[in-house]
Amino acid sequence: TSADTLTIRGDTYPVDAKTNTPINILGKVERQLHMQEGHPLSTLREIIESHFKDYVKLRPSTPVVSVHQNFDELGFPADHPGRAETDSYYVNGTHMLRTHTSAHEVEAYKTDENAFLIAADVYRRDEIDSSHYPVFHQMEGMRCFSGEQGLDFIKADNARLAAELEKCPIIIEDDTVVGPSNPYQECHDPELATEIMKNLKHSLNGMIFKLFGGSTGDEPLKVRWIEAQFPWTSPSFEVEVWFNGEWLEILGCGVVVQKTLETAGMGHKSAWAFGLGLERIAMVLFDIPDIRLFWSTDPRFLDQFADGKITTFKAYSKYPPCYKDMSFWLPDDAASKDITPWHENDYCEIVRDIAGDLVENVKLIDDFTHPKTGRRSLCYRLNYRSMDRSLSNDEVNVLQDKVTGRVVDQMGIEMR
Ligand code: PHE
Description:
Helix 2 crosses helix 6, helix 2 packs across helix 8 and helix 5 runs parallel beside helix 6. The protein has 2 domains: 298 residues, BirA Bifunctional Protein, domain 2 (2-Layer Sandwich); 94 residues, Alpha-Beta Plaits (2-Layer Sandwich). The radius of gyration is 23 Å and the shape is globular. Strands 3-6-7-12-11-10-9-8 form an 8-stranded mixed β-sheet. The chain has a 4-stranded antiparallel β-sheet with strand order 14-15-13-16. By secondary structure, the protein is α+β, with helices and mostly antiparallel strands. Helix content is 28%, strand content 27%. Phenylalanine binds next to strand 11 and strand 12. The site of phenylalanine (PHE) has 11 residues, from strand 11 and strand 12.
C-alpha cells in the first residue's frame, strides 16, 4: 500500500477520486473472526453450517469485489442509497469492500452446484454505537432446483422438512400474503413458486429453531415472517424472532429473481436465498453487550468461550466512561467551497480512525439552526471507554483534540 495504490489480501489496486477506504479498516481484513476457533462468531457459523450439512461451503478469500458484483448484477438501481460513498467503502471507481455476502451469489450459481453456504466479513460505513461496527460478518445460503428435478422433487423435500419441524415447539406467525406488493415472478408457474417459498420457509424455520429453540425456557419459540424488498428476490421476506421481550430482526431472504440466475447462465433453474448477520445473533445468544468485544484479544474475553458451545458472557469489568462534547457550525455553502455535503458517517469515520475501539458511541445531542443567519450548528457527545483498561482524562483530551483538528481540516466546519 503506497500513496497511489492499496494492497488488500495480496492484490494491489490503484486508488482514484472514489477511494474512501481508510488504512485502519484494511487492518481488520486479516482478522477473519468467523474462522477463529472458539470465537463466538465462529461457533455460530459452525452451528448454522451443521444445519445445512450438504451445502457447499464457500469462504471467499478477499473482501474486494467489483461494484458490478455487489450491486449491478443483483439488480440494484443506479440511485440505490447503499451505493453512496457515505455508506460503502470504495477501493476505487470499479472495486469496493463487499457490503453483503450476496455479492458472491452469482459467481456461486455459475459453478452449477445446487446448494451453497457462504461465510464472510462484510463492510459498511455507519454510525458509532454498541451495535454498529464498520466490519461485521454475514452468512448467505442458497438452494437451487433444476428443471429436471421438477415439482415432485420439491414437494417431497418439503414434506421431509415439514416432518422435521413437527418435532420443534415453534409458533410461526406468517401472514405474508403474496400479492401485488410482493409478487411471485411472472415467469414462474405459481405452483412451483409456492413450493420454492415453502422450501425456503421450512429450511429457515428449522435453522432458527436450532439457534434459538434452547433459549426460550418453557415458552415455545415465536418467529414471524414479514414482507420485504430486495432487488434480486421476489417474493422477499424479513424474519424476526421474539427474544427477551422484543422482536429481533435476524435475516432477509426470498425467491431469487430469474434474471439473476440467467446472469449466471442458470436460467433453467429456480432458487431461494437468504442472508444473515452473525454479530446481531451472537450478541443476544452469548449475551455480549458491545459489538467491539468481538474484536477484543483480551483473554478475559476469549477464554470464556469454547468451540461449538453457546455460553453466556460474564462482563469482567466495566471501566469508567469519559465523554467529551463537540459543537460546531456546518459550512454555510458547501457547494461553493468544493466540500462534500455533511454526513454523520464521514464524521464517525474520522472519529474511528483516530480513537479506534476506544470510542463507545457518538451521539447527536443538539441540532440548532440560527433563526437569522440560517447557519446550522450541531453538538455531538463522544463517549470514550476502553473495554480493557481505564482511560485517563489527559489521554482522552489528546484524542478529542486530534478529532477536532481533523474534522476542521477535512469537513470545513467551524468549532463553536
Ligand atoms: N444481503 C441482504 C442484506 O444484507 C440479505 C439477503 C440475502 C436478502 C439474500 C435476500 C436474499 O440485508
